Amino acid sequence: MTSILDTIKKMLGIESADTAFDTDIVVNINAAFMVLNQLGVGPSTIFAITDKTQTWSSFFGTGEVVEAVKTYIYFKVRLAFDPPTISSVLEALNRQIAEYEWRLNVNAEKGISE
Q1: Could you read off the pLDDT of 21-62 as tens digits, one per residue?
Q2: Does 86 reside within a domain?
Q3: pLDDT given for residue 60 in this prediction
Q4: Which letter, b or e, does each residue of 20-57 get, where b requires 16 or more Cβ atoms within 10 Å of its Cβ?
Q5: Would residue 73 count as lying in a domain?
Q6: Is residue 114 part of a domain?
Q7: Which residues, 6 or more positions from 74, have their beta carbon under 8 angstroms from its beta carbon?
């Protein structure tokens, strides 16, 4: 089982054992889960994590869109936690977030939300 927190930390370039930023990362992960809930992705209630014990399967089960959600949450956390300083990179990241939101919403409307 893969920890949600550890996955996002790894994507941010932070070692799993380094817990200095866990609170900041958890808050931003949970904010992304709230947006996903509003897009119709995942369980009907807003999912949230508290630490590294929550896994992707506790959010998705064996869903088809888990990899896209991992990427989306990474983008959202990166934007809030460690935003790019170069405007063109920031703009590209915002475009990726918007595209993932649109695609995840399309899947949710088709009934492919988990």
Answers
A1: 999 999 999 999 999 999 999 888 999 999 999 999 888 766
A2: yes
A3: 79
A4: eeeeebbebbbebbebbbebebbeeeebebeebebbbe
A5: yes
A6: no
A7: 8, 11, 12
Residues 6+ apart with CB under 8 A from 35: 76, 101
11 secondary structure, DSSP code: H
Amino acid at 1: M
* Cβ partners under 8 Å of residue 37, min gap 6: 43, 45, 46, 47
In the numeric block, the tokens 């990726």 are attached to: 96
Domains identified in the chain, total number: 1
What's the domain range around 24? Answer: 4-109
Angle at 57 between CA 68 and CA 108, to 5 degrees: 45
